[in-house]
């Protein structure tokens, strides 16, 4: 990561819907639930900006333990340390919780390497879920994924 790759991070705000939708069709499909969680105080989302451009986001859900979901950096901005910076910002946000939990797809080795490098450890607990999502072209798709839960003591 070079010094020009510093990310500014802030919590999602009600006016961010069009900003996120314009940045990525897949973000546009989840922005309403993210804002609803903020309003209901059941979670928050952190947005990472490179200058004025939103390039990544991460969702935190206020469960016990706190769960990290939807860590995503837009493809043109990957490999610059933004995922690490978002993850560390999420950890700072929930540091009083003492434990952060996340699920990573068994086939998502790149993400797993990131999490393990930052101190997350496998629990052995797995889940399989089927969900719909909007791809980068704006097309709704359906997927089934098996994930393993990882935790980190903060």
Alpha-carbon distance between the two ends:
24 Å
What gross morphology would you assign? globular
What is the tally of beta strands?
Answer: 7
Number of helices: 5
Helix and strand pattern: EHHHEEEHEHEE
Average per-residue pLDDT, rounded, comes to: 94
Proportion of β residues? 35-45%
Question: Mind describing the biggest β-sheet?
Answer: 7 strands, mixed
Query: Biggest sheet: strands side by side, in what order?
Result: 1-2-3-4-5-7-6
Rg, alpha carbons: 15 Å
Helix content: 25-40%
Unreliable segments of 5+ consecutive residues:
none
Structural class determined from secondary elements = alpha+beta
What's the quick description here?
By secondary structure, this protein is α+β, with helices and mostly antiparallel strands. 27% of the residues lie in helices and 42% in strands.
Walk me through this protein's architecture.
- This protein is α+β, with helices and mostly antiparallel strands.
- Helix content is 27%, strand content 42%.
- The protein is built from five helices and seven strands; from the N terminus they run E-H-H-H-E-E-E-H-E-H-E-E.
- It has helices spanning 17-23, 25-28, 31-39, 82-93, 109-117; strands at 8-11, 43-50, 53-61, 66-73, 99-105, 121-134, 140-153.
- A seven-stranded mixed sheet has the order 1-2-3-4-5-7-6, sandwiched between helices.
- A hairpin with a 2-residue loop joins strand 2 and strand 3.
- The longest helix has 12 residues, at 82-93.
- 25% of the residues are buried.
